[in-house]
Specification:
single chain; about 120 residues; mainly beta; seven-stranded mixed beta sheet; 11 strands; about 0% helix
């Protein structure tokens, strides 16, 4: 049994910073990789960032490179997404995901564990 719960989403202004957290419980020792996806209003879910759970390799979508940082604390079973210089287009429901595979997949189908999402709204 694995559960992922996101937190930290809120309304912020453009240019602000925000850190999202994803607390995992259950058989987290089986994680090979973890990722953040987001779903803007009226759009499909899109890849944001991924990390190898027991390693240090990361992957980011072009639109967030240099602004967002994905990280994880294995001991605390928590995944993070540090978001800096937020833009209006970053507004979305953000989801954390995990996979038993040690692969940074950019497709939602590559992950078998998902959180319920946390809303991030960026205003001007």
């Amino acid at each position: 049994q694995v559960q992922l719960v996101e937190s930290g989403g809120r309304v912020v202004e453009a240019g602000d910073s925000l850190r999202l957290s994803c607390a995992a419980s259950g058989r987290t020792f089986s994680f090979g990789s973890a990722a953040w996806f987001r779903q803007p209003p009226g759009k499909e879910r899109e890849f944001v960032a991924a990390v190898i759970w027991s390693g240090s390799r990361t992957l980011y979508t072009d639109s967030v490179k240099g602004r967002f940082t994905i990280s994880r604390d294995n001991a605390k079973n928590t995944l993070y997404l540090q978001m800096n210089n937020l833009k209006l287009e970053d507004t979305a429901v953000y989801y954390c995901a995990a996979s038993t595979l040690r692969v940074m997949n950019t497709s939602p189908s590559g992950y078998n564990y998902w959180g319920q999402g946390t809303q991030v709204t960026v205003s001007s």
